[in-house]
């Protein structure tokens, strides 16, 4: 990754970078390279996708969020799908949203263990300037399977309301950014 970043930094028009499926918890210097990734000046879209065997470690996500938040006037479109971030990782994503560091967010496959965490994320999005958000339906489905149909119905109604409000907010943000 270190050698690749030297080459990437010499690409002045690099807007999209997909380095997903390349992480391992045994990568000792990954968090050091994250700062270099975020120093690519033209970078707008960053994919850090993961899966069950190659995913971003929690400590690396915390460091990534800290670095991104510390960079003034820096925003990106982030894809962290499949990284099994669980509730603590979702809280880190909320930090990015609250600090207005994201244009868009994809985050399917996070092993979210509570609707409360999901609803806090949705509340953050409703207060944000995001212009894109992909609802993590797989995670929602996994959560729903733990409940009886009666309880599921209540959660589905609440999720539907959030979804409608989030889409309205995103459309408003897009209009404000002249993206319609």
Please give a handful of descriptors for the protein shown.
five-stranded parallel sheet; globular; alpha/beta; 180 residues; 7 helices
Concise description?
With 180 residues, the protein is an alpha/beta fold. It is 51% helix and 10% strand. Strand 4 (102-106), helix 5 (115-126) and strand 5 (132-134) form a beta-alpha-beta unit.
Please, could you describe this protein's structure?
The protein is of the alpha/beta class and 180 residues long. The chain contains 7 helices and 5 strands; from the N terminus they run H-E-H-E-H-E-H-E-H-E-H-H. The protein has helices at residues 2-9, 30-38, 58-70, 86-98, 115-126, 137-144, 149-176, and strands at 16-18, 45-47, 76-79, 102-106, 132-134. A 5-stranded parallel β-sheet has the order 1-2-3-4-5. Helix 5 (115-126) packs parallel to helix 7. The radius of gyration is 17 Å and the shape is globular. The protein starts with a helix and ends with a helix.
In terms of topology, how is this protein built?
Blueprint: H1 2-9, E1 16-18, H2 30-38, E2 45-47, H3 58-70, E3 76-79, H4 86-98, E4 102-106, H5 115-126, E5 132-134, H6 137-144, H7 149-176
Parallel strand pairs: 1-2, 2-3, 3-4, 4-5
**Uncertain stretches:** none
Distance between the termini: 37 Å
Helix/strand order, N-terminal first: HEHEHEHEHEHH
What is the total tally of β strands?
A: 5
The strands making up the biggest β-sheet line up spatially as 1-2-3-4-5
Indicate the radius of gyration in whole angstroms: 17 Å
Helical stretch tally: 7
Mean pLDDT: 89
Taking the sheet with the most strands, its summary is: 5 strands, parallel
Q: Give the CA-based shape.
A: globular
Structural class, please? alpha/beta
**Helix proportion range:** 40-55%
Strand content: 5-15%
